[in-house]
Write a sequence for this structure.
């Protein structure tokens, strides 16, 4: 009998002022991450920057744009699990400026995920699966076809988002 795979759902998500739905108490990506964790029985891991992004949307995207231009590696808070101990990893983030938020790069450089299976999922408002191409290069992992869900769908059409998750998660 084969051992059961250990599944991790790691994500970065931001609440506060959002591009299309105003102020939100839970980030779009967090909503999808929770759906995936419930469906897979996976462990949730929220990547959090050591210094929070500004609460206002315009201020936040300006900081994110500067970090991207500088290829910055934002410090992240310590995590309570070792990602290297998991077999399959679902990786989620909002698409910012066509890329993963920089704290995700910090996370991937801190942990060795080479040879792991990564299932990417993103929330966006038109950028689709942006940033996924670099995911394989950064992690050295086996990256499977991803899932892209509009942020406003995650917030306001949860049943529709759940159906997309259910169809994607194997």
């Amino acid at each position: 009998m084969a051992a059961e795979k250990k599944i991790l759902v790691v994500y970065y998500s931001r609440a506060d002022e959002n591009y299309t739905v105003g102020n939100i108490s839970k980030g779009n990506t967090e909503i999808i991450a929770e759906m995936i964790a419930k469906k897979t029985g996976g462990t949730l891991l929220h990547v959090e920057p050591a210094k929070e992004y500004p609460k206002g949307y315009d201020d936040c995207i300006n900081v994110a744009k500067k970090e991207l231009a500088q290829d910055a590696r934002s410090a992240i808070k310590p995590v309570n699990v070792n990602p290297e101990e998991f077999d399959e990893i679902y990786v989620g983030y909002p698409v910012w400026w066509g890329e993963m938020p920089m704290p995700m790069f910090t996370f991937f450089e801190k942990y060795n995920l080479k040879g792991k299976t990564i299932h990417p999922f993103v929330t966006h408002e038109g950028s689709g699966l942006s940033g996924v191409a670099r995911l394989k290069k950064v992690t050295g992992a086996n990256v499977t076809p991803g899932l892209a869900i509009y942020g406003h769908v995650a917030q306001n059409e949860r049943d529709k988002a759940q159906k997309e998750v259910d169809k994607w998660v194997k």
The longest strand covers residues 117-124.
